[in-house]
From TrEMBL:
Source species of the chain: Carya illinoinensis (Pecan)
Record's signal peptide: none
GO molecular function, one term: DNA-binding transcription factor activity, RNA polymerase II-specific
Source organism superkingdom: Eukaryota
Alphabetical list of InterPro entries matching this protein: HD, HD-ZIP_Homeobox_LZ_Class_II, HD-ZIP_N, Homeobox_CS, Homeodomain-like_sf, Leu_zip_homeo
Protein name: Homeobox domain-containing protein
Family membership: Belongs to the HD-ZIP homeobox family. Class II subfamily.
DNA sequence: AGCTAGGGCAAATTTACGTCA
DNA sequence: ATTGACGTAAATTTGCCCTAG
């Protein structure tokens, strides 16, 4: 059995999962389990990641160019997962609502565009590190769907509610920046969290500009945004691990049941062999499993007046096993046979 | 090629906050 | 109203990897 570890890699549902589910429903189990490890595993593993299409493959240096299976069976669909590979400089990822919000809207008094009006925050945060470079504004940018959703979501709440909530978080952050003494831990407001969550759905990692833009947008320190994304990735991985664990448990149970069933069958066959010795008079049949093609060759030896006659037929293992039931047979492992052409 | 500094990330851990009995 | 336990999220620490100089 091959276990390929690949936690939460692909953003799409797994075809493999459907397959294994089907198999399980039939009371059998596919002997190929992949359990994902999307965050490239432990830190002590040398790793490299590369994006191929919308797929991300994890390559560990200790394994040469061997790739971990990219088809894990159970995927908790929590991940956006199209992170920027380390090996290449982060391309400008699309954050449509960000790019818009960073550009002063013509006719907009606050200059922050639509959506979260962070200018309502009384405390200005130290954003001198924010690069006001032109890269942040895209000529093709449009109002993002999230921004629309964000506004809709807040519609039921009063302006005062939002102000109070976000002010609490941001003012605490600003206080910390200012006095620099004891750093109080702040809870992000629901709006800030939701915004970060939406960003995370777009991209689970941020390049520096996106980080700064998000920080500015939410009136947080860039470090806070960075930490939030780190923790979010950790949470996602934890959840995925739990899901994988559950899946493996079920696999284990199924395999145990199958093992019991086979043991029982074996016992029955043995009992049959001892209770009905007349079967021994039948010509002995040798089942030979070819390790490469997994075909079973049955060799029947019979004696006649002129000598021993041996015939060999090749069939697939399932058929051979079903034929062999109720019949005395010998199993000879590792006997190579000449592959006969199959029609 | 080897070295170093800087940055980013994962993992582990700590700490502060919010909730509930 | 207070308190302690507990869960969770924010923040910190540590160590590794990668890249640029």
């Amino acid at each position: 059995m091959e276990l390929a570890l690949s936690l939460g890699d692909a953003p799409k549902p797994f075809a493999f999962l459907d397959k294994t589910t089907k198999l399980s429903n039939n009371g059998t189990l596919g002997f190929c389990m992949g359990v994902g490890s999307g965050f490239s595993g432990r830190s002590d593993e040398k790793r490299d990641t590369r994006e191929i299409g919308d797929r991300r493959e994890v390559i560990r240096s200790g394994e040469g160019d061997k790739k971990i299976s990219s088809d894990p069976p159970v995927q908790l669909d929590l991940l956006p997962f199209s992170p920027v590979p380390r090996s290449q400089p982060p391309a400008q990822l699309r954050f449509p609502w960000l790019t818009d919000n960073l550009v002063s809207e013509p006719g907009s008094s606050d200059g922050m565009g639509r959506g979260l009006d962070v200018n309502r925050f009384p405390m200005a945060i130290a954003m001198d590190e924010v690069d006001d470079g032109a890269d942040l504004s895209s000529p093709n940018s449009t109002v993002s769907s999230f921004q629309m959703d964000f506004s809709v979501r807040n519609r039921g709440r009063t302006k005062r509610d939002l102000d109070v909530e976000t002010e609490r978080a941001s003012s605490r952050a600003s206080d910390d920046d200012e006095n620099g003494s004891t750093r109080k831990k702040l809870r992000l407001s629901k709006e800030q969290s939701a915004f970060l969550e939406e960003s995370f759905k777009e991209h689970s990692t941020l390049n520096p500009k996106q980080k700064l833009a998000l920080a500015k947008q939410l009136n947080l320190r860039p470090r806070q945004v960075e930490v939030w994304f780190q923790n979010r990735r950790a949470r996602t991985k934890l959840k995925q691990t739990e899901v994988d664990c559950e899946y493996l448990k079920r696999c284990c149970e199924t395999l145990t049941q199958e093992n019991r069933r086979l043991q029982k069958e074996l016992q029955e066959l043995r009992a049959l062999k001892t209770s009905q010795p007349f079967y021994m008079q039948l010509p002995a049949t040798t089942l030979t499993m070819c390790p490469s093609c997994e075909r079973v060759a049955t060799t029947t030896s019979s004696s006649n007046a002129t000598g021993t006659n041996t015939t060999t037929t090749t069939t697939n293992s399932a058929a051979a096993l079903s034929l062999s039931k109720g019949r005395v047979y010998q199993v000879q492992p590792h006997m190579h046979h000449a592959h006969q052409p199959t029609s």
